[in-house]
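Fold sample X.
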Amino acid sequence: MAELMTVDVTYGQALYSAAKENGKRDQILEDGLQLSELLKTEPKLMEFLKDPGVSAAEKHDTIEKIFRGQMCDELVNLLFVLTDRGRAGNIFGIIRQYEKMAMEEDGIARGRIISAAPLKEEQIKDIEEQTSKLLDLNVSLENEIDKSIIGGVKIFVDGRVMDASLRKGLDDLAGTLEI
């Protein structure tokens, strides 16, 4: 796993540096996120790109036909390099690393807000504002659902946890009642 993280970080940083030099930081981020989403929704394509039994030439041809003109050349070339080196599966981690670097540069901390039911967009925005003030960061939260927390929310940002869930309150109450 440590090697995979190193690959993701190394390639992500290289892609980010090249993107900044060419003034394409935001375009590559947008295209990269779309690429990640496509490869998650099309697992057979991802399997094809990772298949060691398929020649590099065949993979290159397929990448050309599907992606050339649909996304920036830097990502197409990255796919060529990753498939040639048997690391196509790293594309997700590389794009995550790239996105993390862009967010850090923009002063944004990404986090998760876990709730028992889906939150409305305005609720998430309100909590993002409150969390941003509390942590003195510009926070962007993604809502995840976990019915086991019963009610309230748990917020995870930058290695910090804010637990305002009903489950946590009940667990704390149970702890004080134990003799």
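Fold sample Y, listed below.
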Amino acid sequence: MKDRASQIVSAPWFEHGIIAFILINGVILGMETSPALMEQYGDFMHLGNHVILGIFILEAILKMIAVAPQVDRYFRDGWNIFDFSVIMFSLIPATGDFAMIARLARLLRVVRLVSTIPELRLIVSTLVRSIPSMIHVMTLMGVIFYIYAITGYQLFHEHDPTHWRSLGISLLTLFRVVTLEDWTDVMYTAMDFHPLSWVYFVSFVILGTFVVINLFIAVVINNLDEAKAERLTELQGPVTQKEILKDLRETQKALKRLEERLDKAT
């Protein structure tokens, strides 16, 4: 039974089937936002949700059977813990005080698409690995924001109090500038009072947008390369005794065929 369960969960059709059910669940959740569809097909949607939840439970059981009796191996994988948590939250009755939690748990089933597709898992793990390095980049960006916010307050708060009347508002204005959303309007207003204000804004855009964002991209790409290398190492894995014995048998067969050919040649 263990071998059979292992074959099922490792089969491509099983993975593709789970992805299909996750997508179907997402479509059902989207259809539930329509009052007209809920009134006409509400019972079928509820039935579909229950069936899909049952399939997810069956998937978890098969994965546990595949690693039995060491069921703890199932919970060593963070993605399995996430999938199991989604199932547990989905079992909460969608009534009373827990109705909102139950609805959010149903939305988490769509997020399961990330845990099912290896490429998406790689991207998420890359982002998680990038957090420590991003903290340093964000610290640098915070220093730049703080310096420019104080400078902007000192230069423009009397002429343009709407955007520079306090340190907090100055920071929000700089956030608007760094997103490149109508930042030229703020710059032209400041230039009415200080003609050289463009130096302040252009330098901030160069530092905040081009330099810092490129640093973020560099950190993510670097961690993505490292994650790919680790993933390749995991896929290669250590050579098992079964694989060694298989190679030895094939070598013996090849030597036997070679010996038979040599006998025929002599």
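Sample Y note: The chain has two domains: 2-116, 122-241.
Also: The chain has a mean pLDDT of 80.
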